[in-house]
Fold:
Amino acid sequence: MATVTLNSLYKNYGETEVVHGIDLEVGHQEFVVLVGPSGCGKSTTLRMVAGLEDITRGEIWIDDTCVNELEPQHRDIAMVFQDYALYPHMSVFQNMAFSLQYRGHDKSDIRRRVLAAADILNISELLERRPKQLSGGQRQRVAMGRAIVRDPKVFLFDEPLSNLDAKLRVSMRGEIKKLHRRVATTSIYVTHDQVEAMTLADRIVIMNAGNIEQIGTPDEVYSKPASVFVAGFVGSPTMNLLPAELTAADDGLAVRLDNDIALRIPETKRQRYANYVGQPVVFGLRPENILWSPNGAAQNDALIRRTAEEIEPLGSDTLVFFSIGGREVVGRLPPNSVRRIGETVSVLPEMDAMQLFDPASGKAI
Amino acid sequence: MASRSMNNYRRWPIHTTLIIVCTLMLIPFYWVIKTSLTGENLFSYPPAILPQNPNPYYFVDAWYFVPFVRFFANSVIVAGLAITANLILNALAGYALTRHFAGKRLVVLVLLSSMMIPFHATIIPAYLITRELGLLNTHLGLALPAFSHVVLIFVFKASFDAVPNSLIEAARLDGLSEWRIIYKIMLPLAKPAVATNIILSFIWSWNDFLWPLMIIRDVDMQTLPLGLSTFQSYFEDTTGSLYAFSVMVLAPGLLVFLLAQKEFIRGLTSGASKG
Ligand SMILES: Nc1ncnc2c1ncn2[C@@H]1O[C@H](COP(=O)(O)OP(=O)(O)OP(=O)(O)O)[C@@H](O)[C@H]1O
Ligand SMILES: [Mg+2]
Structure:
C-alpha cells in the first residue's frame, strides 16, 4: 500500500507565498498528474513531496507516516528529473545500480533488479554505455530505470518528457502509461502539457497560481470544468467562453449572447440556473459542440449564421473561427464544410453540453 | 585538404610569433641543462651553443656532496602534505560555497580579500603561530601555511557550480550523504579542478624558499630550494654542480605537470566557456 496525502500545504520563498494551501489525496497505485501554466507551483509541490524543498506549513503523509521531517532518502520515493540527472561519469548499469548500493542490497540482487528493469525498458543493450552516448529517448528510459529498480512506494516525475522532440514525446508518453500498468506504483507526474495530462492521468489536478482549481478524472475536467480557468486550460482548442446574460424566456431560460442570439437552456439545466436570471454569466461551449447545420435554416431559432474569419483545416476536421458579440468563437466542423474565408457558416450550438460560469468568481454555476 | 592548408597559411603569423616566444622562453632551460652537463663557466666567451664534452659528472657530484636524497624526501613529504590538505580542504570549502547559507557573501568577501594580502605581509605572525604550535623545524610546520590556497578553493567552486543541481538532488534521493555526494559525484566530475589543485599546490610547495628558510634550523630538515641556496658554501667551482642540482630540483615538477597537463589546462579554463 502506498498513498500520498497533502494537508493544506503552503510554501513561501522568503516573503512570497507560492503555494497556497493545497489538499490532495493520491490513492494506492493511482497516477495523478499535476498540470498548470508555468510558474503555478507544480514543481514546488512535487519537490516538497520529494523532500527537496522545505515545507512552510501543512503536512505531507506517505501512507500513515508524516514525512515532513524525513530526509529525502528515507521517504521511499524515486524521482525522474526533467534533465534526467544521470551521473555522467557512470555507465548506465552503474547509474541504475547506484542507489541500491547505498540501501544495503547485495551484488546479485542489484544485478537481478537492474537487468529486470533494463528488460522492461528495452535498454538491455545499453547497460555498458555512458549517458553521453545515448539519445534523448534512451536517457529518458535510463532515468526511469533508475527509478523503478528501487521499487519505491511513490514515483515522482517532473516534466520528464519536455526535453524530447514532439514525436518521441508521444511515444514515450505511451511507454510511461504501459510502464505504469506493468509496474503499478503510486505516481505523481508534473507537466504543463494538458494533452500529456489527459492521456496519462487517472486523475488530473489542475493548478493555477499556487491553488488547485480542480481535481478530477480527465473526463470530468474536460466535460465539467469547475472554473473558467480550467475551461480555458483543458482541450485544444480550448472551450469557447463568451460573456452573456441569463434571461427568462417565454417558457424557460435563455442565454443572450448578442443582440440577435438568445439560446434556450435545456429543461434539465433550468433548475440549476434559475437563481441567476437577469445576471451576467460566462457561457462556455466546446468547439466540438458547435454543430454544422447548413440546412437548419428557419425552423430553428438557435441557428447561428456568421462569416468565417479564419479556417484551420486539420484533416480529420476543420476549425472555423467566427465572432459573436466581438468575441472570437471556434467551431470544430466537418472537413470541407467551409472552404473559404468569408463564406457564411451556419451552426447549431449543442446546448446540452454548455456550461455557465460566474464572471466574478470564475467558478462554474 | 585545400581548406586546411588555407587555414595553416593564414595562421602563419601567429605560429611564427608563438615559435619565437617559445624559443625565447626555452633558451634559459636549455642553458641550464647544457651547463649542468658541461660545467662551462657562465662568463666564458664566446659562449658555446652546443654542449662541449657533455658528461654526467656534475650530477654525480651534486648527488654525493649534498644530502640530495634527504632534501628530496623532505620536499616530497611537505608537498605531499600540502597536496592532500589542499584537495580535502579546498573541495569541502568549494562545495560549501556552491550551497546557500547565511553570510555566504561575507565569507566569499573575506576569502577574496585575503587573496590580496601577500604571504610576506603575514609571515611574522605565521612564524609566531608556528612556534606556539611547536612546529618549527618540522614537516608539518613547513606545509601548514600552504594547506589551503584560496585561489584553489575557487577553482573547485567554479567546477562544482557547473554540476547541475538536479544531479545532487538525484544523489540525495539515491541515499547519499553530503560527504558521499562530494566524493562520489562532485570530485569525479571535477577532475580538471583536482588536477589544477594537485599541480599548483605541488609547485608552490616545491618551489617555496622563504618559509622554509625562516623555520628550518637543521640541515636534515631542509627542502630542495634551501639546499640549492646553501650549495655554494660546499664548493669552489660550483657552476656545473649547481646547475645539475637545479635540474634535479626541476625535474619532478616538470614530470607532475606533464602527467596532468591536459586536465590542468581544462581546469584553468573551465567556467570560461561551456563545453
Ligand atoms: N528558489 C526559489 N526562490 C524564489 N522563488 C521561487 C524559487 N523556486 C520557484 N520560485 C517561484 O515559485 C513559483 C512556482 O515555481 P515552480 O517551479 O513550482 O513552477 P512550475 O509550476 O513548476 O512552473 P514550470 O512549468 O515553469 O516548471 C514561481 O513563481 C517561481 O518564480
Ligand atoms: Mg516546474
Remarks:
- Chain B has a mean pLDDT of 86.
- Chain B is about 70% helix and 0% strand.
